[in-house]
Amino acid sequence: MALLFLSPDDPADAWHAALEARVPGLEVRIWPETGDPAEIEIALVWRPPPGELARYPNLKAILSLGAGIDGLVADPDLPDVPLARMVDPSLTRTMGEYVLLAVLRHHREFDRFERTQRAREWAYAFPPQAADRRVGVMGLGELGAAAAGRLAGHGFQVLGWSRSPKAIEGVASYAGRSELHNFLHRTEILVCLLPLTAETEGILDAATFAALPHGAFVINVARGQHLVERDLVAALDSGHLAGATLDVFREEPLPPHSPLWRNPKILVTPHVASYSVPDTAADGVAANIDRVLAGKPLLHQVDRARGY
Ligand code: NDP
Ligand code: OXD
User: Fold this and answer.
1) How confident is the model over 276-292, as pLDDT tens digits?
2) Ligand 2 closest atom vs CA 69
């Protein structure tokens, strides 16, 4: 059985070694050295060029190296075979770390102190206690639920919004469009961890920001297309929003001319909120390869009609 590995960002040699050690008889071929395309039965990919996966006539499954599969399903030529997204303890843990750090940075006003230091201003003020701060997480899947749990463990008041109601300890559940306004109305620090779908694209817009209380913060770690950038800048300029942390952008890398770079109320990070590593992620990928071989349904299979 031959597996195609294609990713501009992941360590090909480490994945090669991790998979061949776990799946006896597996041959890993690293793109673009694919050999005969007809021999490839599984593709393990992140951001393949559009149309590339249509070149493999005997593909049985596509395994995503990313949790978000929006880029894959946007390819009109994506083969109609089962598609699984990445679920990995490292991905979940590093996202929890980033979200906690970004929330604490706003909560403990480090964003403000970074500005007051430049002005040599001794800006003494007491921040509220975590127990008095409400953090709202949009998307309570693998990553959102874990991040919300971590925030609750830290003592924040945590609210979560998802399509279906959830029971997560320490997290008040809001579900569906009908409960979105109530969720936003109570949220002082908003974290977006939604998948990018037709329903969620542009959800971080002027209407959403208007529903947040004055002085709220926004953290987007999901996809750049969730955010309407000009609406964010307008809400920051008006003072309605106090700050934002952005890890993902409509265009990546963020172009040098983007006004987001130089907005003093925005922290830009280069799509590094979380990352999977072969040491922990290869077990799940190997389990899915075994499932393909056994003709079983994939773990973490994407519902293409739903978009995640
Ligand atoms: P999941 O598929 O596990 O979870 C998605 C969650 O979003 C679910 O709780 C789902 O609700 C909810 N949801 C989906 N559509 C809607 C909707 N229309 N309204 C309300 N809630 C909705 O995804 P993950 O947690 O694994 O990943 C989330 C996203 O994080 C990825 O798609 C990716 O874009 C991003 N990501 C970013 C990274 C970075 O480094 N910046 C790294 C990894 C991922 P329900 O549970 O009811 O179905
Ligand atoms: C992902 C990402 O979706 O890194 O996994 O953005």
Assistant:
1) 999 999 999 999 999 99
2) 3
